[in-house]
Amino acid sequence: MIETNTFENLLKDVKIATEKATSEFSNVANNEELESLRSKYLGKKGIVKEYYGIVSNCDKDQKSTFGNLVNELRQLVTRLINIHTESQKANRFTDIATTEWIDVTAPGHVPPTGHLHPITQIQYEIESIFRSMGFQVFDGPQVEDDYHNFEALNIPQDHPARDMQDTFWLTNGRLLRTHTSSVQIRAMQAQKPPLRGISPGRVFRYEATDASHENTFYQVEGLMVDKNISVAELIYVMKVLLKEIFQREVKVRLRPGYFPFVEPGFELDINCLICGGDGCPVCKYEGWVELLPCGAIHPNVLKYCDIDPTVYTGFAFGLGLNRLVMMRYGINDIRYFQSGNLQFLEQF
Ligand code: PHE
């Protein structure tokens, strides 16, 4: 039992403490201040604990009146602490939004993507030029036999012309094709004339590499077989091809050239595109650049393919794709193509 006067004062004290709590919590600016208020009211030596200690000295009626007021104070303080904790969380998000500035109109990051190799690009271009002239595109094996790579092309065993193309021989007697003429033998054996087609692909030569020689490179060879095919058709088709590739009229000339599978055989030169024929370092001051070998298909080759050379004639040509890409872009070393060098490749 607490004396009535003292009890009345105690009740006043609790009410004042309750009002004070509301105003003190409304001024809280940061975590530390919140924590110190929490311990002031709810801590081990805090106000609420102290009042609960007094409750034990009260009689039954006093207990419920006083206890209710102290409970209210405890609940109020707990509620105020919760409110502050929640609003601090919300503030953290507002802080991010105001301090970390995002430009929503800025262009996004484009992930790097690859593209076709420059040789593949020009190969596809050439395929589409020939398709537009009614040529088929033939494919064939890179590992060949002697027959398709040499013999059927009028290069018998022990013929000195075999030395023109240094060959990778495999231990099983086969070889890596030295040109895609082998694919054309397969095509002529499978289809009878009239026939026109090209055979793009990878070829191999057993050569030491330098700026203008590679052991692995790419060709598009082609042929046309029909009645009355002459060198005139050859020149026409070559001129259409070159005009499409270089996007302008190109002057050509033929010089005699020897290849066992054509007769007559030629080297086709183009008027130098850099100097227009006046002479410059690219054409070695000749005005002409050697571009592709070609000729009329040798009668023996037609015979090997069961085509009667007294009825049918044809032309054939071989185009080096590496060479062509080098001329188009002014590339001075053939070894770049297989180097896997991204700084080189990303330019195309
Ligand atoms: N097959 C020859 C080579 O790769 C190129 C060629 C094709 C020559 C057609 C003449 C006619 O060297």
Outline:
The chain has helices spanning 4-26, 31-42, 47-55, 60-99, 118-132, 146-149, 181-190, 231-246, 299-304, 321-329, 342-345; strands at residues 136-137, 143-144, 175-176, 195-204, 216-226, 252-256, 262-271, 288-297, 313-320.
How widely separated are the two ends?
Answer: 99 Å
Summarize the biggest pleated sheet. 7 strands, mixed
CATH topology of the largest domain: BirA Bifunctional Protein, domain 2
* Beta-strand share of residues: 15-25%
State the CATH architecture of the largest domain: 2-Layer Sandwich
Structural class label = alpha+beta
Ions and ligands: phenylalanine
Briefly, what CATH class of the largest domain? Alpha Beta
Give the helix/strand layout.
Elements: H1 4-26, H2 31-42, H3 47-55, H4 60-99, H5 118-132, E1 136-137, E2 143-144, H6 146-149, E3 175-176, H7 181-190, E4 195-204, E5 216-226, H8 231-246, E6 252-256, E7 262-271, E8 288-297, H9 299-304, E9 313-320, H10 321-329, H11 342-345
Parallel strand pairs: 1-4
Antiparallel strand pairs: 2-3, 4-5, 5-9, 6-7, 7-8, 8-9
Bound molecules: phenylalanine.
Descriptive overview:
- The chain is of the alpha+beta class and 348 residues long.
- It has two domains: 4-99; 118-345, Bira Bifunctional Protein, Domain 2 (BirA Bifunctional Protein, domain 2), CATH 3.30.930.10.
- Helix content is 43%, strand content 17%.
- The protein is built from eleven helices and nine strands.
- A hairpin with a 5-residue loop joins strand 6 (252-256) and strand 7.
- The chain is rod-shaped.
- The structure holds phenylalanine.
